[in-house]
């Protein structure tokens, strides 16, 4: 409980220091909205011209995309700075987290809040609402609960993968390219239904770097497409399980990484 | 020309240390080429011969677009360098150099682009050729026109990026603006979806904006969608925009330079 209190306090401080730069705050959020609008327009043009993409209509694609953005928003608000771990290690500034008498992870996570995530929340919520009405979905309490559970699971999946990659930089010092690979995989699963990319791609994003659990599999379930997905359909339920498993692995890797750490001394 | 080479050499030296990094980068390019291959394969399976273009041509366009993304990604370029120098205050060392700033940026960026072309784009093109049905240009003449339009495309992108970099001098930070900028440039450049797929108004807008010089014109020439007099017209279009953008950049730099305030040190 103490840890949580400290974390919230740190986040509060980060938030206030961020809000010093109002102009940057506004342009950042507008930028995110513009970028997503451009991406969606591109998808819209493609699907419109070809009617559908492997059985996915325009609004189903919007749903898939927005679902991902919604999951991603929490990650980008609170956990995005796993990306910066390698800088701390290369420059030796990671030492500061080990010196203070509070948990290393709490200090690191509380360091920053990436307000850009608010732009993602706006985009995700708008996209999901529009898709919901265009697809004439009619959900009950069960579907809504499942939506919340799987969005949160998606956040945890992305966070755990980023956490593992950033822990690897304790061994390799460089992790940026690994993050780029993850971002590319993420962008692909975000924008396109992975069933178009052939079997081995699906195996990779399901079993190896399971980003498909962020949006694809839960969307199958919520859009009633599990039968169309055949023998892969049951995975729609598995997001929470995958999230917990991944977090466990991430914690193991992180602990090993910490034990291994020796400062660069520069 | 020696100036341009020295920046290429420097890029080689500073990147040679991280070999594992290189393989991961190559892998992510492959991933994008592979995905665009499948997207067009599926779409053309649904509607063969769409827009009067064959599947082979469309795949070549897409795969080539992804391979060239390694050198033409708008997220890299002089604006990043300028923004970084402004943030750290080190821009004064650039100003002290006995070298025209605009030319310095061009040489530096050209050197880096050449480096990335030989280490990333070229291997990607070979992989694309071997595994993903990337085809050779229709003929020697077409290939030559492609190279010319690619160089002109580089100049257009450089000039746009330079202008964005100048914005960093004024506003001190362009990090968040660059996301929107990257998205818009890649969209109107036809990096992923060619301009002939764009509907009505968006298509008309894309046709007059300078961005299509970066991907759409070189790629369309490569696959033979633009040939003969049409190709020359497209190259003329690129030249016109270069003649507008270069003086604009130099003029803007001249004005900003005279009121530049350097922080820190």
Automatic annotation (TrEMBL), chain A:
<protein>
    <recommendedName>
        <fullName>ABC transporter permease</fullName>
    </recommendedName>
</protein>
<keyword id="KW-1133">Transmembrane helix</keyword>
<feature type="transmembrane region" description="Helical">
    <location>
        <begin position="113"/>
        <end position="132"/>
    </location>
</feature>
<feature type="transmembrane region" description="Helical">
    <location>
        <begin position="234"/>
        <end position="254"/>
    </location>
</feature>
<feature type="transmembrane region" description="Helical">
    <location>
        <begin position="21"/>
        <end position="46"/>
    </location>
</feature>
<dbReference type="Pfam" id="PF06182">
    <property type="entry name" value="ABC2_membrane_6"/>
</dbReference>
<keyword id="KW-0812">Transmembrane</keyword>
<feature type="transmembrane region" description="Helical">
    <location>
        <begin position="58"/>
        <end position="80"/>
    </location>
</feature>
<feature type="transmembrane region" description="Helical">
    <location>
        <begin position="192"/>
        <end position="214"/>
    </location>
</feature>
<feature type="transmembrane region" description="Helical">
    <location>
        <begin position="144"/>
        <end position="171"/>
    </location>
</feature>
<dbReference type="InterPro" id="IPR010390">
    <property type="entry name" value="ABC-2_transporter-like"/>
</dbReference>
<keyword id="KW-0472">Membrane</keyword>
UniProtKB/TrEMBL annotation, chain B:
<keyword id="KW-0472">Membrane</keyword>
<feature type="transmembrane region" description="Helical">
    <location>
        <begin position="193"/>
        <end position="211"/>
    </location>
</feature>
<keyword id="KW-1133">Transmembrane helix</keyword>
<feature type="transmembrane region" description="Helical">
    <location>
        <begin position="114"/>
        <end position="132"/>
    </location>
</feature>
<feature type="transmembrane region" description="Helical">
    <location>
        <begin position="144"/>
        <end position="172"/>
    </location>
</feature>
<dbReference type="InterPro" id="IPR010390">
    <property type="entry name" value="ABC-2_transporter-like"/>
</dbReference>
<feature type="transmembrane region" description="Helical">
    <location>
        <begin position="20"/>
        <end position="43"/>
    </location>
</feature>
<protein>
    <recommendedName>
        <fullName>ABC transporter permease</fullName>
    </recommendedName>
</protein>
<feature type="transmembrane region" description="Helical">
    <location>
        <begin position="231"/>
        <end position="253"/>
    </location>
</feature>
<dbReference type="Pfam" id="PF06182">
    <property type="entry name" value="ABC2_membrane_6"/>
</dbReference>
<keyword id="KW-0812">Transmembrane</keyword>
